[in-house]
Amino acid sequence: KVVVGDQDGVITCFGIKKGEAVPVFKTLPGQKIARLELGGALNTPQEKIFVATGSEVRGFTKRGKQFLSFETNLTESIKAMHISGADLFLCASYIYNHYCDCKDQHYYLSGDKINDVLCLPVDKVNGITPVLACQDRVLRILQGSDLLYEVEVPGPPTVLSLNNGNGGDSGEEILYGTSDGKLGLIQITGSKPIPKWEIGNEKKRGGILCIDSFDILGDGVKELLVGRDDGMLEIYSFESADDPALRYDYALSESIASIQGGCVGKDGYDEVLASTYSGWLTGLTTEPVHREGGSGEELKLSQEMQSKISSLRNELEHLQMKVLQEREKYQQSSQSSTAVSSVPAFSVNDKFTLNKDDASYSLILEVQTAIDNVLVQSDVPIDLLDVDKNSAVVSFSSCDSEPNSNFLLATYRCQANTTRLELKVRSIEGQYGTLQAYVTPRIQPKTCQVHQYQIKPLSLHQRTHSIDQDRPMNTLTLKGQFSFAEIHSWVVFCLPEVPEKTPAGESITFYFQNTFLGTQLESTYRKGEGCFKSDNISTISILKDVLSKEATKRKINLNISYDIDEESVRHTLKLIHPKLEYQQLLAKKVHLIDALR
Q1: Does domain 461-576 bear CATH number 3.30.70?
Q2: Which residue stretches, if any, does this entry annotate as coiled coil (predicted)?
């Protein structure tokens, strides 16, 4: 049996008989389901269904009878959930809560947004060890309501999973996937982390959204099933424990929201089941599809296949009729004297991230129905780069940048059935503003949604765990009558990947790296004082301009002082030199092409 939770708040449970989906139960719609987990008493089959919707957790039996409705005290909606026996772990944005038998046990406030939560298996590891995957590229290991230690990972972790589904032999092994497509395994011991292996994203594929462990090859070792946000489904096998290798991959057309291995369609044949963003469920089977044909015989479609095809045809005709009826009904009601225009609601799944490799931003837009066109507008100078996977037709409109600072106007017209569009933009540091995407899907009546993305003054900087302290550094120091929250809001305005919430404590230090030039920035600040160090004098100059502008807006008097290291200029020019050399060589080669022709 398969159970699915969707954005309309419906839980559907079904099985497959003779290639047809047979429903077991279906619940009524409500708030969208953020998480769905199976649970039950420890060491028994996990057959109870738990879902998180808004700030509530509900439980259903495998027959569809609701036995639990638990309204938590969380003010925000639940983003992540993990269940282990009677223990329930919930996370909303920055808050982690642990309940046992629906009674509040522990609470923790994280420094950055929490993307996923997990607990090491209680039967193997003594005590409860929760692990939080946080947006600032850190896994936080808790003990009770306190932080035990932090583990740095190579990208913002989006998903956690127990190795082999049980934490491995020790019960301490955790798999993580990051939003920039990296995958790794870490052993979480009681005192320190032991990294086991890590796979980079060489093929520049999408971010990882879901992981499952399942023995799909039937060799007695569980393989790793991975789903990515660009629709890539991957199966990794293990030659040895610390050496995963990509065995199979399969491209779906939309982001994979969830992936599971199991036996669904036919006894004796395992499947990989994936659900994608717009609500499709896809099964990949180990059953051999090609039947052996005799010598020179005409292969006849089996009865089963023929009946399946005709039933699909009937279903399609039925749907087409229904669409026509509804369309006529809408036309009549919209022309009547009591007409009410109805704007169809649709949800857009968007992601705007900086790629470290080529210092460009990826804007990924995904809609539940086919996209008709996307209009991109920007009030700062940016370049649109080509994306291989993108089949949309782009046309640029000329725009006047003078009166209303309009620097870019481009339209992407999508081919039929495109539900996902990926764009790449490159910004210029020091030029900041807003990028807007107007998304119009193919639905009647025509509706458009606008999504806005901030391009920050230091847009090409990315958070990092540490920096090289030996470089020649320029320093910018600010002093004035400002609060910790105020200077933090200015830093959020200037730099990407800084949590919006003011950090706990008196002061905070963040490290950044410029993805384009490889220069670095260290920012340390507290109430009334801020200190910014960088080996790139331009970074310091941009910060000075923006920070003084922000302070002037709030009528705060700033005392700004610099300490400039002359050596840093030579150092940064050395970093820029190979890039210039490459461009100059390229220009020379382009000149030679004509002569060679």
Answers
A1: no
A2: 302-329
Domain 348-455, CATH 3.40.50 — does that match? no
Q: Between the CA of residue 526 and those of 15, 86, 485, 491, what are the distances in Å?
A: 58, 42, 9, 12
Packed helices 537-553 and 566-596: angle between N→C axes, nearest 10 degrees: 110
> Tens of pLDDT along 530-559?
999 999 999 999 999 999 999 999 899 999
**Maximum Cα interatomic distance, the chain, rounded to a whole number of Å:** 91
Q: Average pLDDT, stretch 326-341?
A: 77
The answer to whether the Cα torsion of 229, 231, 232, 234 is positive or negative is positive
Measured in whole angstroms, how far is the alpha carbon of residue 485 from the centre of its chain? Answer: 28
Give Cβ neighbours of residue 178 (< 8 Å, ≥ 6 apart): 137, 153, 154, 155, 156, 157, 158, 207, 208
Q: What is the pTM (predicted TM-score) of this model?
A: 0.87
* Buried-state track 296-314, b at ≥16 Cβ within 10 A, e below 16: eeeeeeeeeeeeeeeeeee
Tell me the per-residue pLDDT of 416-467, one tens digit each, with 9 for 90 and over.
888 999 999 999 999 999 999 999 999 877 899 999 999 999 999 999 999 9
Going from the C-alpha of 72 to that of each of 41, 54, 101, the distances in angstroms are 21, 10, 12
pLDDT digits (tens, 9 = 90+) for 153-199: 999 999 999 999 889 889 999 999 999 999 999 999 988 999 999 99
Name, in order, each residue with C-beta under 8 angstroms of 401's C-beta and a sequence gap of 6 or more: 407
d(CA 532, CA 111): 21
Amino acid identity, position 417: N
Tell me: cis bond preceding 445? Omega within 30 of 0 counts: yes
Name residues whose C-beta falls within 8 Å of residue 238's C-beta, 6 or more positions apart in sequence: 221, 223, 224, 244, 245
Contact between residue 130 and residue 119 where contact means Cβ atoms under 8 Å apart? yes
The CA-to-CA distance between both ends of the chain, in Å, stands at 65
Domain boundaries, the chain: 2-207, 208-287, 348-455, 461-576
Laid out side by side, the sheet with 33-39 consists of 33-39, 48-53, 56-60, 66-71
Per-residue confidence (pLDDT) for residue 348, from 0 to 100: 92
Listed in order, strand segments (DSSP E) in 65-102 are 66-71, 80-84, 87-92, 95-100
Q: How far is CA 575 from CA 479, 484, 539, 570, 581, in A?
A: 32, 34, 14, 9, 11
The confidence score (pLDDT) of residue 292 equals 52
What is the residue type of 19?
G
Domain 348-455 shares a fold with domain 461-576: no
User: For the domain 2-207, what is the CATH superfamily, name and number?
Assistant: YVTN repeat-like/Quinoprotein amine dehydrogenase (2.130.10.10)
Give me the amino acid identity at 136: D
Is the Cβ–Cβ distance between 443 and 498 less than 8 Å?
A: no
